[in-house]
Please model this.
Amino acid sequence: MSMYPPPPETPQTSWSPHQSGPRAGFWARFAALFIDSILVAIIPLIVIAIGAGSSSRGLVVFGYILYIGGYIAYFVYFEGGPTGQTPGKRALGIRIIDFNNAGPIGYGRAFIRLIGRFIAAFFCYLGYFWMLWDKEKQCWQDKMANDVVVPVQYYPVS
Model:
């Protein structure tokens, strides 16, 4: 028997998303957005090319409307869904989670995030580069929707 009591057990600290922790890097986020932008633009570009080739202004306008509507639907649907991943984010192994509870952000906040994306781009893309010096690596759209982008290895899709 020892004269001294055993040392207290060190409590297991679990990381929560509202603490600084693992975040997706700039280039992974950039590559995911690049992939997603290509996927969104394929069909509208074909429609626009056909319209331009046949001198059909109506078809060209329809192609642009298809692009805008498709862009909104694509990002709101995938980012607001249960996985928080677009196909581009899935390919790069990153996802969007709620800053407070690590769950999905939902479609309403995904739409707010989309509006934030336009605002971030409007000011010479300053809102996208913001993550380079932000403590939580958040862009403006992340701050507006109260979310973070994390590697899937730390927050697997359930």
In short: Strands lie at 94-98, 147-151. The mean pLDDT is 91. The radius of gyration is 21 Å.
